[in-house]
Amino acid sequence: MFDPIKTLSPSVPDIDDDAYSMDDFEGVNARWCHACGNNAILTAVQKLCAEEQLAPEKTVFVSGIGCSSRLPHYMGTYGFHALHGRALPIAEGIKIRRPDLHVFVNTGDGDCCSIGAGHWIHAMRYNMNMTVLLHDNQIYGLTKKQISPTSPRGLVSSTSPRGAYLEPLNPLAATLGMSNISFVANAVDWLPSVLYEIIHQAFHHRGLSFVRIVQRCPRYLPHQFDEYMKDPERILLLTHAQGLHVQDAVARRFKHCMEHDPSDLDRARELATNQERLPVGILYRNPGVLCYEDVRTSVEHLTAADKVKALEREFDKFTVQPTS
Ligand code: SF4
Predict the structure, then answer these.
(1) What pLDDT, in 10s, does the model give residues 101-159?
(2) Are 112 and 215 in contact (CB under 8 A)?
(3) Which site from 70, 78, 147, 233 is most exposed, i.e. has the minimal number of CB atoms within 10 Å?
């Protein structure tokens, strides 16, 4: 239909248009290797931000160190590229002071499950309202192929020339054994619609949502996940009214698709340790777990005068008293 205002003044925005598009969430050009699974995760979070119309100035992506941790640079939001293993405590610090922000964490298997493992356990227990994405490629890519805690036994790498000696850490089983957990899911980077839906549900969960994403590293482990990619029978798709919803056309691609009630923690633990098939979906969800920021005094509830008083109290701790 002819729209005289738009035709004559094309710069006038259409009030029906969404305020933000995916382009608004683009940062600098991604420098990951070609076909790296991190690209799919970046696209999913940019799509989420656009679809949820998150204000870029109210959104922050926090990361540690590793290939995955470059993600905040590629977002058109605020970001904090932190120290190795320290993404979670920094995200918690942001959330306690600014509960109004949308906080995301991008961490790798080395960053979260090795040097950051202590923070991982306690962040789960604190259950602060944020979305944590574990990019699990089972290798240290940034430092050129060293084994990580999730590398399979026998993997030959620059730090394990005779093959990795130990069985890998299972991030899902480990998380499901921690205290106060409220949301645990598993996704894979090569099923973009399912990946998006899981991240979408994670974002809408109030509490810490932990999403482990099996992420391809074609540079150093090009065939690591072929068994799952080439044979959909090795995937167990978990759906439920309170869990993952997928379109019938997507569900039909999987021979093994089951209803899993995400409130069933024992069943979630069994699924997490299933050796035969990789579970994809929401394993556990408990919206009743308290968020730490809700049981602590929040700055949001303070008046401007209270904030000044609190600030002065902090400064007074460093007062130098003259000696007589
Ligand atoms: Fe991705 Fe691996 Fe390249 Fe890192 S080294 S950017 S994880 S493909």
Answers:
(1) 999 999 999 999 999 999 999 999 999 999 999 999 999 999 999 999 999 999 999 99
(2) no
(3) 233
CB neighbourhood size of 232 (10 A) = 14
| Alpha-carbon separation of residue 22 from 78, 208, 211 (angstroms) | 15, 25, 22
Could you tell me if the CB of 76 is within 6 A of ligand 1?
A: no
* Contact call for residues 147 and 155 (beta carbons, < 8 A): yes
Task: Quote the distance between the C-alpha of residue 234 and its chain's center.
Answer: 24
Q: Which atom of ligand 1 is nearest to the CA of 221?
A: 2
Q: How far is the CA of 33 from the centre of ligand 1 (A)?
A: 5
Closest Cα partner for 284 from 169, 186, 215? 186
Pocket lining: 140 vs ligand 1, CB cutoff 6 Å: no
For ligand 1, say whether the CB of 38 is within 6 Å of any of its atoms: yes
d(CA 75, CA 58): 13
Q: Residues near 21 by Cβ (< 8 Å), separated by ≥ 6?
A: 50
Per-residue pLDDT reduced to its tens digit, 229-262: 999 899 999 999 999 999 998 888 899 999 999 9
CB atoms within 10 A of CB 79: 20
- Whether the Cβ atoms of residue 32 and residue 70 lie closer than 8 Å to each other: yes
**C-alpha of residue 105 to centroid of ligand 1, in Å:** 18
Please name the residue whose Cα sits nearest to atom 6 of ligand 1.
32
Q: State in Å: Cα 69 to ligand 1 middle.
A: 11
Report CA 264 to chain centroid distance, whole Å. 22
Q: 4-299, what's its fold?
A: Rossmann fold (3.40.50)
Report domain extents, the chain: 4-299
Residue 198's SS3 state is helix
With a 6 Å cutoff on the Cβ, whether 221 touches ligand 1 is no
Ligand 1, atom nearest to 135 Cα: 7
